[in-house]
Amino acid sequence: MKRMDAEKCTKIARSIALLALLILPGCGSEPPGFRMNRVFAHKMEIHGAELDSAIDDTQIAITQLFGTPDQPLLPAVLTDNPDFQSLIQLENLQRAAGAVASDRDGTDRGLFRKHCSQCHGISGDGNGPASNLLNPYPRDFRMGVFKFKSTQYGAKPTVDDLVRTLRHGMPGTSMPSFHLYPDEDLTALAQYVIYLTLRGEVERAMYRDAANELGYGDPDQTPQDRLLAEELKESDPEAYQEQWDAIEDYVVAAASRWIDAPEQVVAIAPPPEKIPAWPLAADATADQQAEMAASIARGRALFGGKVANCAICHGADGHGDGQVNDYDDWTKEWTMRNGLDPKDPEKKQVVREYLALGAHKPRNILPRDMRAGAFRGGDQPQDIYRRIVQGIDGTPMPAINLVEQPSGSGLTTGDVWDIVHYVLSLSQTGRGEAL
């Protein structure tokens, strides 16, 4: 996909979002509610107990903790703790949540529903009205995994990372740029995404314990053995408080990973001094041109070599024609990692069960064609550097092993910059630009 194609994709996405607005609930309809994660619950049922009653208990708990789409709440265990008070400001949460509206002073409200829910869904589950029309599918925030960020593999993004994604969009996808919107709107949306992620991760943690640790499905289960039994509030307040304390521990664990994110930002090592900055200036000297050409040549060799092993997925020439049968983690979680091959004809009925519960139809995740010039996490040299060093969470793209000296077990920062230059040279060639 070339740059113009990416622009067309964004226009199409906006048109789809506009159409989706027309089919959202209108006046007189029931207030919107958060959709429970029945796909994940069903997966846990296969490996544990039947969870219908656990879903009911979980819904009661997370509604008390996080409220509703129209009346969001922040858990007291966060608002009462100074360590977490900077994570989400209540004012930002209230601005981003609720119905689309505007104050007399022109302050927009309902930002998430206005800009995001058509694709990502009210619940942030990637199941908005337009979602099935889009490729790739919109992100499901509830897993708590984000692809493009400045932090190390497996860590949460920073708020600035989320704002950057909102500001720049994701070229080659339906995610448009919101660069024309005020910074305060983007910060409010970023914090609302964190709120949806916290809610989703707490829900998932409760299902895990319900399936693996508690007595759901056991006819002899007592109220004390449940995630949360409201009747214990009066009959056994001590047991009820123990249940509530355990639930708040889930909240603190999820929030702590966000608080720790700024400490996990990966520094970008500068390129070797002898290599000029990319792109070469129009008046680059012959020596600078030669150094860049040498860097690109080294990068090509590393790209196809056994250590970096980029070619196994992206193809020998970076055309994205290596492996084409893998899935992202959002699909793998309920398919391949669940013992379910979605291409197995004998498993069609099982796949249908998951689709009926809200899963998206499985699609293969395709490696990037470097010639396209549409790098979703950014097309600047430092962006490509991060993708190589840190990998891309939620995808088959791993982080590399960074070493100080050349070896057969990893790449030096100089090696990484050589691959960066090779990748960027492919994108220029694909656009018909001179190197």
N-to-C SSE string, H for helix and E for strand: HHHHHEEHHHHHHHHHHHH
The domain tally reads 2
Task: Give unreliable regions as ranges.
Answer: 1-10, 20-24
Strand content: under 5%
**Number of helices, counting only DSSP H or I runs of 4 residues or more:** 17
Structural class: mainly alpha
Distance between the termini: 19 Å
Q: Which of globular, elongated, flat, extended, rod-shaped describes the shape?
A: globular
Number of strands: 2
Radius of gyration, CA atoms, in whole angstroms: 24 Å
Instruction: Report on the biggest sheet.
Output: 2 strands, antiparallel
Strand order of the largest sheet: 1-2
Taking all residues together, what is the mean pLDDT? 91
- Kindly state the percentage of residues in helix: 40-55%
Pfam families: Cytochrom_C, Cytochrome_CBB3
Organism: Rosistilla ulvae
InterPro entries: Cyt_c-like_dom, Cyt_c-like_dom_sf, Cytochrome_c_Oxidase_Subunit
Protein name: Cytochrome c
Could you explain how this protein is built, in words?
This protein is mainly α and 435 residues long. The chain folds into two domains: 3-264, no CATH class; 286-325 and 365-430, Cytochrome c-like domain (Cytochrome Bc1 Complex, Chain D, domain 2, Orthogonal Bundle), CATH 1.10.760. Helices cover 45% and strands 1% of the residues. The chain has 17 helices and two strands. It has a two-stranded antiparallel sheet with strand order 1-2. Helix 9 (183-212) crosses helix 11. The longest helix is centred in the middle third of the chain and has 30 residues, at 183-212. Residues 1-10 and 20-24 have low confidence and may be disordered.
